[in-house]
Amino acid sequence: MLTAAGVRATLPHRYPMLLVDRVLDTGDDRIRALKAVTLNEPWYARLGPSPAEDDLAYPDFLLIESWTQTAGILATRLAGDAAEGQVMLFGSMSGIEFHRRVFPGDTVEHHARLERAVNDTMIFAGESTVGGEPLLTVGQITMAFRPGGTLAPPAS
Amino acid sequence: MTGTVLAAPRPVRAPARDEASGAWTAGYTVAISGDEPVFAGHYPDFPIFPGVCVMECVRRAAETAPPPGTGELRLAAVESTRFLAAVHPGDELTIDVTWSPRGEAWRCAAKVATDRGPAASVRLRYRQEATPC
Fold first, then answer.
1. Chain A residue nearest residue B47, CA to CA
2. What is the pLDDT of residue B131?
C-alpha cells in the first residue's frame, strides 16, 4: 500500500499529469493502483454550461497514461538506486483495447505486471477495470530509464 | 470541449483517396506552445510534451476528416505506438495520417515529426457505431 503522499514522492509527475491516487498493493512483479475520476478534472474546465454526456467521458489516452504511471511506480521500485537521477521514458505500446468509458464518480483500478526486463528496459502488461468490469486491456508497454540530460530541449 | 491539448490541428494537405487500396491520406500541423497546461506537471522545470498528448494530437487531426461515407467512428484500440524522440515547447508537429479500411473497422496510421526528425508513429483502430434506424 502506498498512500497519495507515497505516490507523489515516487513519481516526478505533478498536476495536471499526476494520474495515480493510491497503490493498493505491490508484489515482486505486479502492482495494483487506483485513479479516481472527478468532475473537477482540468480536462472538463472548458466545457460549456450544458455539456453532452459524451463530453464528460474521461480522455481515453489519459487512462493509458494513468496505467503507465502505475507500472512506473513498480518500475521505480524494481530499479532501486539505479533509478536515481534517471528519467523514465515511455518507449512503445501495442495491443491496447478500450472496452468502455469512464465518467466523473468512477474509480479505475489498474493492474500491471512485469513481463520482462532487458538491460534498462522493462516490459509491462495488464488491464484496468471499473466497478469490476473490463475497461482497458494493455497488451504491452515498454519503459526505459535514461539519464535526464539526454532529453534536454535543443539549444535555440 | 474535453481534451488534454489546447492546440488545434491545422490542415496542410487535403484528404486524398488512393483508388487501389481505398485508403485516405491527409497532412496536418500542430503548434505546441509552452502554454499547454500539461507542461506544468510533465515535468516541473523539465517540460516534455507527454507521449499520450502526441497521440491526442494525432487523434484530433485524424478525426477532423474521417473517411467519407462511414458512420460514426469510435476509437477501439491503440494497435501500436512508438515514441522516437521527445517533443518540447515550441515544436511544431507535422502529422501524416492514413485511414485504411479493415473489414468493418478502420485503421488510422500516423507518422509524427518535428523539425528535428521523426517523433512518433501511431496506429489506432476505430470501429463503426451501429447507425440508428
1. A153
2. 61
Distances (CA, A) of A63 to A35, A100, A129, A135, A151: 9, 11, 11, 9, 24
Listed in sequence order, the residues at least 6 apart from A49 whose beta carbon sits closer than 8 Å to its beta carbon are none
Residue A156 lies in a domain: no
CATH number of the structural domain spanning residue A78: 3.10.129.10
Looking at the 3D structure of chain A, how many domains does it have? Answer: 1
With CA atoms as reference, report the closest residue to B65 among B106, B104, B111: B106
Q: What is the mean pLDDT of chain A?
A: 93
The CATH number assigned to the domain holding B92 equals 3.10.129.10
Residue B102 belongs to some domain of the structure: yes
Bridge partners of A138, per DSSP, are A96, A126
Give the domain range for residue B15.
Answer: 10-128
Chain A residue with the nearest C-alpha to that of B37:
A16
Interatomic CA distance for residues B34 and A15, integer angstroms? 16
Contacts of B88 in chain A (CB under 8 A): 153-154
Is B1 a member of any domain?
no
* B5 inside domain: no
Q: Is B59 among the domain residues?
A: yes
| pLDDT of chain B, 133 residues: tens digit per residue | 678 999 999 999 999 999 999 999 999 999 999 999 999 999 998 899 999 999 999 999 999 999 998 888 999 999 999 999 999 999 999 999 999 999 889 999 999 999 999 999 999 999 998 765 5
CB–CB of A61 and B43 under 8 A?
no
Instruction: Report the domain count for chain B.
Output: 1
Q: Do B2 and A59 touch (CB under 8 A)?
A: yes
| Residue numbers in A near B79 (CB within 8 A) | 94-95
Contact (CB<8Å) B37/A60 = no
Give the residue numbers of B annotated as catalytic, written as ranges. 42
Residue A39's closest chain B neighbor by CA? Answer: B2
Cβ–Cβ below 8 Å for B43 and A14: yes
Q: How confident is the model at residue A145 (pLDDT cuts 50, 70, 90)?
A: confident
